[in-house]
Amino acid sequence: MDRLIDLLPELWAATAETLYVVSFSLIFGGIAGLLVGLALYSTREGSLFPNRFLFGTINVIVNFFRPIPFVILLAAVQPIARSVGIPGIGPEFGIFAITIASLFAISRIVEQNLLTVRPGVIEAARATGASRTRILFGLLPREALGPLILGYTFIVVALVDMTAIAGAVAAGGLGEFAIVYGFKQFNPWVTWAAVLVIIVIVQAVQFLGNGLARRVLRR
């Protein structure tokens, strides 16, 4: 317990590092995943911009990367990160790896939630003269906003989990803190302190996400 008290500054620093990695991974992966999800939705047969070849290509790429366990993906993308000037360890590498992992999961969530929008809504928009581009980037995300918020909430929780796993390869955050000061030094107090902070972060994210989705769905 005394060791945990001594390590409190490192614990708060690791917490800030985890939030930093999660935030930037969500920004980069969230935007990229949204665009890929919109492309999947719009190019499928019977959609706004049907293109069998383009849909098939994107679909295969997403299906290729999604099943890869994150701990294996960390090792696989390390040489790629180094080739573009990103260190193979540290928070920047964590952001790089988590962004790649999350964008493919987000793209599926976006695609599936857009598919829940009733066809009648799209037909009504087309009948009033709305362009297909306006429907894709304006109407559809707005109609599916509630489910999208819940989907992104789920992703943020997954990102927190990924940062903990990334700590195993010295990517910083609470995962590295728990491994270095808890597991390797046989100090369960330190390990459980990191676990409790992660639980608090996840609960806060879930509470905010559920609240936002509830407000949107009531409109």
TrEMBL record:
Transmembrane segments: 20-41, 53-81, 93-110, 144-169, 189-209
GO term, biological process aspect, one: D-methionine transmembrane transport
Subcellular location: Cell membrane
Keyword terms, alphabetized: Cell membrane, Membrane, Transmembrane, Transmembrane helix, Transport
InterPro entries xrefs: AA_ABC_Transporter_Permease, MetI-like, MetI-like_sf
Presence of the UniProt keyword Cell membrane in the record: yes
Domain ABC transmembrane type-1, chain residue ranges per copy: 15-209
Superkingdom as given in the UniProt entry: Bacteria
Pfam families named in the record: BPD_transp_1 (PF00528)
Main location: membrane
Membrane topology: Multi-pass membrane protein
Cellular-component GO terms for this entry: plasma membrane
Membership in a protein family: Belongs to the binding-protein-dependent transport system permease family.
Name of the protein described by the UniProt record: ABC transporter permease
Organism: Microbacterium allomyrinae
Lineage: Bacteria, Bacillati, Actinomycetota, Actinomycetes, Micrococcales
